[in-house]
Design goal:
Helix content of chain B: over 70%
Low-confidence stretches of chain A: 344-349
Order of helices and strands of chain B: HHHHHHHEHEEHHHHEHHHHH
Strand order of the largest sheet of chain B: 1-4
Low-confidence stretches of chain B: 328-365
Number of strands of chain B: 4
Number of strands of chain A: 6
Oligomer: heterodimer
Strand order of the largest sheet of chain A: 1-2
Largest sheet of chain B: 2 strands, antiparallel
Strand content of chain B: under 5%
Helix content of chain A: over 70%
Radius of gyration of chain A: 23 Å
Largest interface: A-B, 48 and 46 residues
Shape of chain A: globular
Mean pLDDT of chain A: 84
Structural class of chain B: mainly alpha
Order of helices and strands of chain A: HHEEHHHHEHEEHHHHEHHHH
Structural class of chain A: mainly alpha
């Protein structure tokens, strides 16, 4: 009996319980609304169905959120990812507009500007010592200007078929973007869990000063985390521009940084650093995309998605907050104690 | 003379001195390069065209000085324009009913976010982010269209202006100037203002000193909400319509103006007047680009980003310099010196303030 209780406690104490429950609840709403929600059909050698659609659309967010997770784990934040997505897409589109056959160069250009942006952010945070939110705010403000500078203020259409495969093509019946997201997730997980890097990142998040005193090159690690975030944003930029077949300096990746931070928080990663979960982040990103899908399919006006998102953010952060839980517990205890003593207070003397 | 120079180079006033100099240089550059730039009209135009941003940036300054951040300001401005438009066009309420209502709404909205931040110990970034989503979503729930205001009192208020020299100040600009005067008074001559600086300098010290941390923090966000709603009202007068996509990215402009104005994002350091010059610099850049005519609009963003970067680097250099001075040049005490550094301006804003504060502190004890 007691062991059973412990097991239940262990399950509910696990980091991933809340995100999994949220996702399951959202799926349940969808299934209740439309019984065929979970069905997947094979058409012309491509898989079709709502879950595939959600995975496909969530791919850029998943990739960006992975980079964001590592940044947040070091007590940082990267609010420039939306702008980097726009710059990367613009860079690729500019190369392709010159010569549609140079797909390799376009990909290289997009990834290079992403890494460059990451190097800039990392330099400011790790070596200059700026607050992460400010350091990345600079690129967030200037980045869209740079993207528009690259595209000349126009929306550049992309027609190269080889490039469009990444965001719209299929490989082995599954959308390419899903494979890419899987690949990036696996690579990140290997890098973080199979090497000491994950431990170092957690250590920096828990106590940066102690980590430095122990002898870890913490500034180099923090620097590389921002470079990684820039790289993931660039990959997402390639997927996004390839999916919409154009590069728009103004609107590509708009508010993506906020969605990414939201995904990371939903996944149980602490914004105070030191505790992170890549699986949680992937779940968080899927929750956000499923939420969008659900609001659309239920027939709530699409504009309400923002309101629903706001409420989800608030509820999740209140649940995660230790102070809120303590307050709730105190209230419950008080109510319980009050109920117990009621006969006494109800009958004075 | 030396003393005066020393005060100008003081780490707390240096950023603001640089801001004022930069503003003068930018304006001077425009005057030399373009005919008709150097005029009272252009200077007043800066104030008229950026009145709403100035009001929002003033609220943001308080939040940032208290050590927080408010990302919801832009969307609250948008929501206010819609509420004003709905009130005037659909409900046909008079403007003196609408204005207090939207201001009260903004204040309550801010206070609610402040309460969440304080009582649940949530991150200001996340809570105000949710506030931003909520306000923006509420805009679109009310209407996805742009509502033009045809109501006559709104038009009369928007058309009201006071001629000064060659130019004139609109009602929005006058409201902004009034807000500025009140904000300076609140920041430097009231107990609340002092508490804000103390809270931003070091929350734990403020708590141990017996300062009302809860009231101050909620008050700061309420103030920012009020400023956003007031900015939204002024913006409504400026564009005479309500639209949910209005003021997108204004939170970035407000934060940029505040930082360029010399306010430290770590909290505890900053002046309201600095943000005025920060807004002035942003406005001048835009005016310069308009005057030039050949530069594209995206250069505004790039220049603002570059300036933001330059000012943040300057702040870092000043911080390091101050830290090194305190640790006798060894650099070892850099981390130890930082907290002390942050709380320094709390007792150093000016000698007049201290003299003003003494009676109250005496009274309390």
């Amino acid at each position: 009996m007691k062991r059973g209780m412990n097991r239940i406690q262990a399950v509910f104490g696990h980091q991933l319980v809340w995100p999994v429950l949220t996702l399951v609840a959202l799926f349940a709403i969808d299934v209740a609304h439309r019984a065929g929600f979970l069905s997947i059909t094979l058409l012309d050698g491509h898989l079709f169905g709502a879950p595939i659609d959600i995975l496909n659309r969530a791919a850029p967010l998943v990739i960006v959120s992975l980079g964001m997770t590592l940044v947040i784990a070091t007590r940082g934040i990267d609010i420039s990812v939306g702008a980097i997505v726009a710059i990367a897409g613009a860079a690729a589109a500019v190369v392709l507009a010159d010569d549609p056959s140079r797909i390799g160069t376009a990909l290289g250009a997009a990834l290079a500007v992403g890494v460059l942006a990451g190097i800039w952010n990392g330099m400011l945070v790790a070596f200059v010592g700026m607050q992460p939110i400010i350091a990345t705010l600079i690129l967030m403000v200037a980045g869209r200007g740079v993207a528009q500078l690259l595209t000349g203020g126009q929306i550049i259409p992309i027609g190269a078929p080889g490039y469009l495969v990444f965001g719209g093509g299929y490989l082995a019946t599954v959308p390419c973007s899903v494979w890419i997201a899987l690949g990036v997730t696996a690579a990140t997980a290997l890098l973080v869990n199979r090497t000491a890097l994950g431990l170092f990142i957690r250590a920096i998040g828990v106590n940066p000063v102690a980590t430095r005193l122990v002898g870890l090159r913490s500034s180099a690690i923090v620097f590389s985390v921002y470079v990684f975030s820039g790289l993931t944003a660039a990959i997402a930029g390639i997927l996004a521009s390839s999916n919409v077949r154009s590069a728009d300096g103004n609107n590509a990746g708009l508010l993506l940084e906020l969605d990414a931070i939201l995904a990371v928080t939903l996944g149980g990663t602490s914004l105070l650093g030191g505790r992170f979960s890549l699986a949680g982040t992937v779940l968080g990103a899927l929750i956000i995309q499923t939420l969008t899908y659900t609001t659309y399919s239920i027939g709530v006006p699409p504009e309400a998605t923002l309101v629903v998102k706001a409420i989800v953010v608030l509820v999740v952060s209140v649940i995660q907050s230790a102070a809120a839980r303590a307050m709730l517990l105190r209230q419950l205890l008080r109510a319980f104690a009050f109920a117990k003593t009621k006969p006494l207070t109800g009958n004075p003397q | 003379m030396n003393n005066r120079l020393g005060r100008l180079l003081d780490p707390r006033t240096l950023p603001i001195v640089v801001t004022v100099v930069l503003f003068a240089v930018l304006f001077g550059f425009g005057s030399v390069m373009y005919t008709g730039f150097f005029s009272l009209q252009v200077l007043l135009g800066l104030l008229v065209d950026n009145a709403f941003l100035l009001i929002v940036a003033i609220g943001m300054t308080f939040v940032i000085v208290s050590g927080g951040i408010d990302l919801s300001v832009g969307s609250v401005v948008a929501l206010t324009t819609i509420l004003c438009a709905i009130g005037a066009e659909r409900l046909h309420w008079p403007v003196w009913v609408i204005a207090p209502l939207v201001l009260a709404f903004g204040t309550l909205y801010g206070a609610a976010m402040g309460a969440l931040i304080h009582f649940f110990r949530l991150q200001p970034f996340i809570v105000t982010l949710a506030g931003m989503f909520l306000a923006r979503g509420a805009c679109f729930l009310i209407t996805t269209q742009s509502i033009t205001i045809n109501e006559s009192t709104f038009h009369a208020m928007a058309g009201f202006s006071v001629p000064i020299g060659g130019g004139s100040l609109t009602s929005g600009a006058l409201i902004a100037l009034l807000t500025l005067a009140v904000a300076i008074f609140v920041a430097h001559f009231t107990r609340f203002g002092r508490n804000v600086y103390a809270l931003g300098g070091n929350e734990r010290s403020a708590l141990l000193m017996g300062l009302p941390v809860a009231r101050t923090r909620i008050g700061v966000y309420a103030l920012s909400g009020f400023c956003s709603a007031l900015g939204g009202f002024v913006f409504t007068l400026y564009v005479l319509s309500g639209y949910g996509l209005q003021a997108q990215g204004m939170e970035l402009d407000a934060i940029a103006a505040t930082v360029i104005g010399g306010t430290l994002l770590t909290g505890g350091v900053g002046y309201v007047i600095g943000s005025v010059f920060g807004v002035g610099i942003l406005g001048t850049i835009q005016t310069l680009i308009t005057f030039d005519g050949t530069l594209s609009s995206w250069w505004t963003r790039i220049v603002i980003g570059t300036l933001l970067c330059a000012f943040c680097l300057l702040q870092r250099i000043i911080e390091r310099h101050a830290a090194r001075r305190k640790s006798d040049g060894t650099g070892l005490g850099a981390d130890v010196a930082k907290p002390a550094d942050k709380s320094a301006p709390t007792h150093g804003t000016s000698t007049i303030d201290l003299a003003k504060m003494n009676p109250t502190t005496l009274k309390q004890s």
